[in-house]
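Exercise (ungraded).
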Amino acid sequence: GAVVSQHPSRVICKSGTSVKIECRSLDFQATTMFWYRQFPKKSLMLMATSNEGSKATYEQGVEKDKFLINHASLTLSTLTVTSAHPEDSSFYICSARITSSGGGGTQYFGPGTRLTVL
Amino acid sequence: RKEVEQDPGPFNVPEGATVAFNCTYSNSASQSFFWYRQDCRKEPKLLMSVYSSGNEDGRFTAQLNRASQYISLLIRDSKLSDSATYLCVARHYAGGTSYGKLTFGQGTILTVHP
């Protein structure tokens, strides 16, 4: 299957700092990437949809000024958590979509980034 | 009401047992359905798609009932390696977009013991 990587896999930072997470599709081009967040014992919640060359689309309740998304190329999307606070501590997972004819397409998930804000 | 609802379990079963998971979805616009498997502290991985005609992949059988908006997963002859969280997922297409948005259930925890 297709491979999606994320970096870093784990980050611990102080409250108030900004953290950048990279998501790369390694062997395919992804016009659309998705960012999810998963709190302990909860399910994945879509935060935003990242479209190459255009602004991201954020889900209701997700602050676009706090979670900055950049999708500068067909293989890279970044999520920056600005001025992180302890409540931002979570498991952040990206996924990239391979386009198939007729739309839809399969989403492949990255291994996730575990963020801990002290 | 959550868009995708699952019994969170946990289900604790012995090796060789048959176990069934249920899931309901509320968005009638959902068009595609999947079961994902997530191991502890890992990303979800696609287990199988779910079709109205029912589909089988080895020991796994998935079923979709669109009329009742119900999805199921049956695992036969459980293995220790089947222990994981099973996520029921529905996809619908947001207006004006060509991609689908996945909505995940909260997951059902399965533990298979010797």
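Further reading is listed at the end of the chapter. For now, observe: Residues 47 and 62 of chain A are 6 Å apart (CA to CA). The interface with chain B takes residues 32, 34, 42-46, 49, 91, 93, 97, 99, 103-107, 109-112, 114 of chain A (CB under 8 Å).
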